[in-house]
Amino acid sequence: MPKNSKVVKRELDDEVIESVKDLLSNEDSSDDAFKKSELMVDDQEEKDVDVEEGSDVEDERPAWNSKLQYILAQVGFSVGLGNVWRFPYLCQKNGGGAYLVPYLILLLIIGIPLFFLELSVGQRIRRGSIGVWNYISPKLGGIGFASCVVCFFVALYYNVIIGWSLFYFSQSFQHPLPWDQCPLVKNTSHTFVEPECEKSSATTYYWYREALNISSSLSESGGLNWKMTICLLAAWVMVCLAMIKGIQSSGKIMYFSSLFPYVVLLCFLIRGLLLNGSLDGIRHMFTPKLEIMLEPKVWREAATQVFFALGLGFGGVIAFSSYNKRDNNCHFDAVLVSFINFFTSVLATLVVFAVLGFKANIINEKCVIQNSEKILKLLKTGNLSQDMIPHHINFSSITAEDYNLVYDIIQKVKEEEFDSLGLKSCQIEDELDKAVQGTGLAFIAFTEAMTHFPAAPFWSVMFFLMLVNLGLGSMFGTIEGIITPIVDTFKVRKEILTVICCLVAFFIGLIFVQRSGNYFVTMFDDYSATLPLLIVVILENIAVTRIYGIEKFMEDLKDMLGFSPSQYYYYMWKYVSPLVLLCLLVASIVQMGLSPPGYNAWIEDMGTEEFHSYPTWGMIVCISLMVLAILPVPIVFIVRRCNLIDDSSGSLASVSYKRGRIIKEPVNLEGDNTSLIHGKSPSEVPSPNFGKNIYRKQTGSPTLDTAPNGRYGIGYLMADMPDMPESDL
């Protein structure tokens, strides 16, 4: 037998090695399908063959060009818009610096263990979410389909936010910025400030009227907003072009889309620290309020933020890790990406509150000037006595401290008449206590602060370009969570599927760029992902620990990583994480039941928001979103349990190796052909190499050499294998 021979792929070799001919000649001559397969056996003295060289599946599946590219992809997916506009809000709302304590505890209890679990199963089985859970138990294959549905729902409205950012980015190349001042309205007699803007603010008016041209209710469509429609189309074109070649194209873009936001955040932090009042914002942010930390609501919101910050349940984590080598240290990746995500959130919080502190300082100065003028008028009219004003006070250049001193004196002296004087307490803390999040933070509060920056257009361009890149990084993972499982399962061309997916999403996404579109974004954000993803991750945990078996999974990890993971993960996966997730699910359901379902509608005449309840059809849509997202789980279970679809494949066979004998066995493959050789004809099924050490003895079967599940997991069905991962559920 020739030395250094390897597995021959794709075409039959006419000159089959003699020893293989002898083996094949012992088989049934009528077995045409088996004879089409080809096998070459390595010399026993040949060195170990790496998994990437030993199988067709490994060679055909794309792989990351480098470890850095993979880490950047995972960081880009997990670090998104929520780190910039959700985490700072929660930190401010839930005790400042004290909020970091429950967040870190929950990161260690549910964040890192569940992130490690998803990385492990993706790398171990090398398939997308559908294939992974179908491989563990065909009856739980619906978990992967549910992940795909949730990813699609989220992608629909998430790309709309990228479109909004693109619009603001395009409008930032002008000085002054278009949202710097309220517009003037001219009529035949005189010019006046736009009433809607005068009642709110310049940035608020620009967001609701110029950008969204928003309607007054969900039921009032108002037609398409053509500016946002073009921006949405541009966003989907960017996503499609980046994803059309899978990780081969998106991986290269990750170097920019994942790293650029950090450059911008550091620039903003340095610039922000040089601004007057920035330290007041940071001090306010991280002043711990320990009494708030003990409230259950704080822990619930911290757990929810940990859960969504890492992208658990979406399938993107599994999809990205499925392109890794099997011996990659995914435990290190899980810890690294989790803490990068955490420190990014802290960095973004520093930036946000440095800038908001500067903004609060400007507003406070205006407040001091306006109220000082009121005091001067009251002194002139005799309503206030000059004797109560300290001698060192100079109203022409009064400081905030001096004003507050005068304010306190007047309040004590004129206790009964004080309310009628119309004076306001000008405290920076009062302004910083006004919690804002989401679009209110990015497109109103932060945007207003940047108008006061020197070279404001430059900082505006940088900020919204950062938002675009943060959004795209998350979108790549979300779309990969849809494309990879479907390509693995149904063997369709990735390029065609990507284009179709983006086209369909764009046309459905037109509901978000009508004048009432912002209300639909709120609806999808509140109802399409939260509960379904919690259920998905709970089922993922159960599938690995109960169906597949936690002991077997730990053995696979040892075989795959080269070392035994800490027993900490054993207890987290088996006991603690499922319990915490169930508590979080119950708390989320209770919170959803107690909170009246509705949205904040913009009232043009009042120049403010007003809470509206969803109409009946809106409630039906909300419920439908949750039901549709989780519906694949029971459907697939029932179909597989009752054998409603006969998907057995008589043409597929498993090849077993037993002391040199080749045994051909017909296989009735249950599931959707997502094991690692499903969907191939017998001639396409790769034959494993007989390297010296790449197979290990199966327990209880001393005469059988088989490929270890943990290192290969490539789905060869071996004879008498009691520990195949397909469950008998």
TrEMBL record:
> Any idea where this protein resides?
Membrane
Any one GO biological process? L-leucine transport
Q: Name one Pfam family in it.
A: SNF
Q: Which InterPro entries match?
A: B(0)AT2 (IPR042934), Na/ntran_symport (IPR000175), Neutral_aa_SLC6 (IPR002438), SNS_sf (IPR037272)
Q: Where is the composition biased (Polar residues)?
A: 696-706
Q: How does it sit in the membrane?
A: Multi-pass membrane protein
For this UniProt entry, which segments traverse the membrane? Answer: 70-88, 100-121, 142-169, 226-247, 259-282, 302-323, 335-356, 458-483, 495-513, 533-550, 571-594, 614-639
Q: Where is this region: Disordered?
A: 27-57, 674-707
Q: What is this protein called?
A: Transporter
**Species the sequence originates in:** Anser brachyrhynchus
Q: State the gene name recorded for this protein.
A: SLC6A15
